[in-house]
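hey can u run this one w/ flavin mononucleotide bound, need the structure tokens asap thx
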Amino acid sequence: MPDLVSGAPASIRVLGIAGSLRAGSYNRALLRAAGALAPAGMEIVLFEGLREVPPYDADVDAAGEPAEVAALRQAIGKADGLLFATPEYNYSVPGVLKNAIDWASRPVHRSVLQRKAAGIVGASAGASGTIRAQLALRQSFVFTETYAMLRPEFFLPRASERFDVSGELTDEPTREHLRQFLAALDAWIRRFRTRPSA
Ligand SMILES: Cc1cc2nc3c(=O)[nH]c(=O)nc-3n(C[C@H](O)[C@H](O)[C@H](O)COP(=O)(O)O)c2cc1C
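ok here u go:
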């Protein structure tokens, strides 16, 4: 149902992609928290198929996209916006996430990532809070023409102090920061939204 004042949709669907396969991933837990703290009118759905995405191979891509890749591309294509939660591996983006982005980035210059609005967050066990990984991710999004929100930024350092053992984000200042980030992301995505109203 469209919003009659602004023409904006009543709700937007955001695809959350966590760059970790670990069962106890702080980054997946961060996306779950985001789903609970999202503003009214924003739904966050997690992409769960990252493990199944094969290593990028241009020959395979040319022969016809594998079903797992089609699922990834379709999920991105259908979403109004994206929310990436990236760990930092060796000062950069984990291979599984970079690999998924490589698949999603093709066909070049007309991929599902092109002109798609996105937000970037990240949680790390250490003190840096994924600063370097997020910058590396932004670098890929320059080429893919993905509209990654610039500010506010969201870095979550020392993750073990902010989540409880069940993976619940319990640190209230962090929850409030995430709420504010998501409110900004909601406005950002609505500026670029291209999916027709459902
Ligand atoms: C291969 C590898 C490299 C890592 N490199 C970094 C790093 O460069 N900077 C950092 O802050 N943490 C690094 N870490 C620690 C991660 O921040 C930590 O494992 C984090 O919990 C991963 O995210 P996840 O909980 O979502 O799986 C590294 C971990 C692994 C396994």
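Confidence is low (pLDDT under 50) at residues 1-7. anyway lmk if its weird
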